[in-house]
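Input record (one chain):
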Amino acid sequence: MTLKLCTAVLAVLTAFSAFAPGARAEAPSLGANIWTPQGLSFNDCMQRATGALRQPGSNPNQQTLFQGMGYVYGPIGDYNAMVMCVIHKGTVAFVVAGQDFATANNYVSQINKIMERR
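The corresponding structure, as predicted from the sequence alone:
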């Protein structure tokens, strides 16, 4: 990844972790993964991310930073999930924060698989 992309992802993760449940009482566990799909459009990524977060019970929100970069985020129970579509760099990042790493990582895997299938 380029330095700009790493900086942007780190900034979003830092902001995201502030909303994690129990973030002030305990440090949250983060599950994360990167997917590099071939030929995925920005709009398709955002639609897939919205559907992937709805499936486990979230009511997700979307934020477009600029054409080719945006994110979809929302709570899944006591966990917070985010899919970052960085399509101008051919990258999709998945992050889930919560109290238990295994559960967070399981949500990441589920979201990633749902996005790949669509």
